[in-house]
Specification:
The chain has 331 residues and is α+β, with helices and mostly antiparallel strands. It folds into 2 domains: 240 residues, no CATH class; 84 residues, PDZ domain (Pdz3 Domain, Roll). The protein has 9 helices and 10 strands. It starts with a helix and ends with a helix.
Length: 331
């Protein structure tokens, strides 16, 4: 099941990515010769209009093959003959789709688990909040001199404070009541012992999904920068074998955890694909900009060759990381 889960996630994310290229290409009038899920030997295909739709044996990739993408073409609807804005939209569309997909998954997770609010759902009687007289159903509206609107503000007011006792004002049936609540340390965290109620608000879930995706993206970019600068060794990279094991371990913790991992991988796919390296979408976007200024100095055939070399280098990196994962996870 570990392998099955991993294959399903890979196929889903690749499909979303290539679908972004495909839909955008069709929208801007670029001819798509083949839309494939998977690589290697052909398992199934059919043709509709100008496009062949195929399913291939190896679930390690996929592609949206456009006319004139890596070679010169005289077709007016070929990629190489379309205006720069149209080509740029098609190139970045795959990563944009993975980014949006990550946001949507996290939003769904927030809806499923509920969004913590400022109303108390439960509190152990042996912890300070219960001893001070706070009750389930009370809504915290102020801590010290800080007005409270979100659960995160409660965590921040308690966690970042220095006081051993906090003045907390709670709304109980329309009446504001002050409480003097002690703070205790548990697992190196300042707590008072309250559990929040939650709401299922799609709008807030979408905002939180976007915020969480942005925060994850910032951390990923930092790590990529550290890899490039040498502050983080290449041994820290995880390839397909490692991801299979991570997916398996995460699946044991439940569907919601697996969904969060899927969002993480989708965002990772979006960011890595936009790196300015040949064969990646970011490399193609870079060539579009360069060739705007150099004209025919770099031909379509030359660019295609460079991207092919880049693809070989990426496969070499994948092989290296795979052997590293085998040593780490299997031996």
């Amino acid at each position: 099941m570990m392998i099955v889960y991993a294959i399903l996630i890979f196929c889903l994310l690749i499909f979303v990515h290539e679908l972004g290229h495909f839909v955008t290409a069709k929208t801007v009038g670029i001819k798509v010769n083949e839309f494939s899920l998977g690589m290697g030997p052909l398992l199934f295909n059919f043709k509709k209009g100008d496009t062949e739709y195929s399913l291939r044996a190896l679930p390690i990739g996929g592609y949206c093959k456009m006319e004139g993408e890596d070679e010169e073409s005289g077709d007016s609807n070929a990629f190489n003959n379309r205006p720069l804005p149209a080509k740029m939209l098609v190139v970045i569309a795959g990563s944009v789709m993975n980014l949006i997909f990550a946001i949507v998954i996290l939003a769904i997770v927030f809806i499923a688990v509920g969004i913590p609010n400022t109303t108390i759902k439960a509190l152990p009687p042996d912890l300070p909040a219960g001893k001070a007289g706070l009750m389930p159903g009370d809504t915290i509206v102020q801590i010290e001199d800080k007005e409270i609107r979100e659960w995160s503000e409660i965590l921040d007011a308690i966690g970042s404070g220095k006081e051993e006792t906090l003045t907390i004002i709670a709304d109980r049936d329309g009446t504001r009541i002050p409480f003097e609540v002690d703070v205790v340390i548990e697992q190196e965290r300042r707590i008072i012992g309250i559990q929040p109620d939650s709401t299922k608000n799609p709008g807030k879930a979408l905002v939180l999904g976007t915020k969480s995706t942005f925060e994850m993206g910032v951390e990923m970019i930092k790590v990529i920068g550290q890899l490039i600068s040498g502050k983080v060794a290449a041994d820290a990279l995880t390839g397909p074998v490692g991801i299979v094991y991570i997916v398996g371990d995460t699946a044991k913790m439940g569907l919601l955890n697996l969904a969060q991992l899927t969002a993480f991988i989708s965002l990772n796919l979006a960011i890595v694909n936009m790196l300015p390296f040949p064969a990646l979408d970011g490399g193609r976007a870079l060539f579009l900009i360069i060739r705007t200024f150099t004209g025919k100095t770099i031909t379509d055939a030359t660019e295609g060759t460079i991207h092919f070399v880049g693809l070989l280098l990426l496969f070499g990196l994948m092989i290296y990381v795979t052997f590293q994962d085998i040593g780490r996870f299997l031996l």
